[in-house]
Automatic annotation (TrEMBL):
Belongs to the class-I aminoacyl-tRNA synthetase family. The keyword Ligase applies. SUPFAM superfamilies: Nucleotidylyl transferase (SSF52374). GO terms for cellular component: cytosol. It is an enzyme of class 6 (ligase). It comes from Methylorubrum rhodinum. This is Glutamyl-Q tRNA(Asp) synthetase. Keywords: Aminoacyl-tRNA synthetase, ATP-binding, Ligase, Metal-binding, Nucleotide-binding, Protein biosynthesis, Zinc. Gene3D superfamilies: HUPs. Residues 6-283 form the Glutamyl/glutaminyl-tRNA synthetase class Ib catalytic domain. Its EC number is 6.1.1.-. The keyword ATP-binding applies. It comes from the Bacteria.
Length: 286
């Protein structure tokens, strides 16, 4: 049996905050309890928001917390060709289709409906506008350079499933159970973006397999995404890790901490004289 392998995988689009610290420290604690390894992955597919100073800041913040990681750091931006091959494999099986719709067009289409189904993140489910385009129209629009995403054909993907889709959940003590997965609630999800040949969903399942991740520890805000991830793992012939989704660190209003909201960063705390032991105490991890 190989050692359990976990990963902490932040996106370098801002400085880490207490929520990241809680996730990283929780990963480290569980990896230690399981006698496993902890890897670091930089999820930098969003090239427009990634900054070198944020990448270095991530390294600095994690080192300040006293965290040490096994193996080399994996950066997603260095593996676009692998994601493109995975995307091509799904498209060759007609499990993906190109979508030329802008967000505005999608919003207008769903606005005409009396009731709008939404995905777990609250976004309207894609109405399938481009799913029925003819091959000739698709080819002409692609050859003309029209921007497009690649969406999963949800119905075709589920028809290709040959075994029950289940999620392996584990508790911090290692105890496991399985629950059914329901990827239908994501509809025809985007698998490759307009600007890069992947999405978070495709890149994360590919990387987890490449890095031999056996246990995924991440926040509850990503729990619903696991339904889609186990589907992609099945379609690509990848192993499914066991998953544990921890609680989120929230501000005084009850909202989760977020870089986009300007939540206080670890760098700010450090500059104000807070030390790593105090951070652990604040997070209930002392």
């Amino acid at each position: 049996m190989s050692r359990p392998t976990l990963r902490f995988a932040p996106s370098p689009n801002g400085r880490l905050h207490l929520g990241h610290a809680f996730s990283a420290l929780t990963n480290a604690r569980i990896a230690d309890d399981l006698g496993g390894r902890l890897l670091l992955r930089i999820e930098d597919i969003d090239l427009g928001r990634t900054r070198p100073e944020f990448v270095q800041g991530t390294f600095d913040d994690l080192a300040w917390l006293g965290l040490r990681f096994d193996g080399p750091v994996r950066r997603q931006s260095e593996h676009f060709s692998a994601y493109a091959r995975a995307c091509d494999a799904l498209a060759a099986r007609k499990l993906l289709y190109p979508c030329f719709c802008s967000r505005g067009r999608i919003a207008a289409a769903v606005a005409e409906r009396a009731a709008v189904a939404r995905d777990p993140d609250g976004a309207p489910l894609y109405p399938g506008t481009c799913r029925a385009l003819s091959c000739n129209e698709v080819q002409a629009r692609i050859e003309a350079g029209e921007p497009h995403t690649w969406r999963l054909d949800g119905a075709a993907a589920l028809a290709a499933v040959t075994a029950p889709l289940v999620i392996r959940r584990f508790a911090p003590d290692g105890a496991e159970k399985t629950v059914p997965a329901d990827p239908t609630r994501w509809g025809d999800a985007v698998i490759a973006r307009r600007d890069v040949p992947t999405s978070y969903h495709l890149a994360v399942v590919w990387d987890d397999a490449e890095q031999g991740i056996s246990h995924v520890v991440r926040g509850q805000d990503l729990e619903a995404a696991t339904d889609l991830h186990v589907l992609l793992q099945h379609l690509l012939g990848l192993p499914s890790p066991a998953y544990h989704h921890h609680g989120l660190i929230r501000d005084e209003t009850g909202d989760k901490l977020a870089k986009s909201k300007g939540s206080e960063s670890l760098a700010d705390l450090r500059a104000s004289g807070v030390d790593p032991d105090a951070v652990r105490a604040m997070l209930g991890l002392a």
